[in-house]
C-alpha cells in the first residue's frame, strides 16, 4: 500500500512547493490580467466604436511601470527558486551515504555495509546522501514525493543528491531522462521506515541474504541475481527478440557472432557466458547492436556468474 499523504515527505517539499506556488500564482496573474485587458480592448476599440484610428502618444511613466514591475516579479520568482535549490547543493557531513547505480534499465542501491537492493530502503529523519553512478548513458533519479531530481551523468565526479525523509511510507522512484527503449519501465520504490526498524533491517537482511543463498539452489540464486541487475529488461525468457538475444534455449546453442571484423560460430558454454558478462562487446551476436551492454566486471563475483550459468542451463 502506497503512502497517500506525501506532503512534507522530505525536508525539501516546502521549499519546492513554495517556489512552485509563487511562480504559478504570478503566471496566472499575468494570464488573467492580459486576457481581461485584451477583451476590454477588443470591445472598446472595435471598428464600430472607433471607425477612425486614433494616434496614442507614448507614456514614459507607463513604460517604466511595465518594465520595473515584471522585473521585480521575475526577481521574486528567482529568489524562491534559488532559496529552494541552494540547500540541495550541500549535504550534511553526518549524512548516511548510499550509492545509486543507474543502467539500462534499472536502479540498484549499495549501502555502506555492501548490501545491494533494487528498492531504496531509508531510515526516517536521517539525512541521506545518494552518490549517483550512471553505468552507461544519461539517467535522472527522480523521487516526486521528496521533490528531488538529479541527473546521473556517466563519468561525472561528485554527482550526488541529498534529502531527509520525514514520513514513513512507500514512495515511487523514476528515471526522468529518456534513456532508451525500456526507459518507461525504469522505476522502483523508496521504503521509508522508523530508524529502529531500518537498523534491524540493514542488519537482518544481510544475514537473510546469506542464508538464502545457502538454502536456494544455484539456479534460483542465479535468477535472483539477474533480476536484481536488470538482465530481463534486455533479454526475454520466451524466445522473443528484444535488445539482446533471448535466454530461452541459449545454453549449448550455436550462435553466429562478430568478433572485431570476423564472423564466426560459437557454442554457448561457461567460457562464453563469462566473457559475455565481463566483455559484452567482444563477441556480439549477429543481428544485434554493439555497445548497448556494459561490463559487469567488479560488480559480479565468479560465484555470481556460476549461479547465473546454472540458471541459464534450466531455460532449455
Automatic annotation (TrEMBL):
Its cofactor is Cu cation. It is an enzyme of class 7 (translocase). It is found in: Cell membrane; Membrane. Binds a copper A center. Its main location: membrane. GO terms for biological process: ATP synthesis coupled electron transport. Keywords: Copper, Electron transport, Heme, Iron, Membrane, Metal-binding, Oxidoreductase, Respiratory chain, Translocase, Transmembrane, Transmembrane helix, Transport. PROSITE patterns: COX2 (PS00078), COX2_CUA (PS50857), COX2_TM (PS50999), CYTC (PS51007). The chain crosses the membrane at residues 20-43, 64-82. Its EC number is 7.1.1.9. It is a multi-pass membrane protein. Residues 93-204 form the Cytochrome oxidase subunit II copper A binding domain. GO terms for molecular function: copper ion binding; cytochrome-c oxidase activity; heme binding; oxidoreductase activity. Belongs to the cytochrome c oxidase subunit 2 family. This is Cytochrome c oxidase subunit 2.
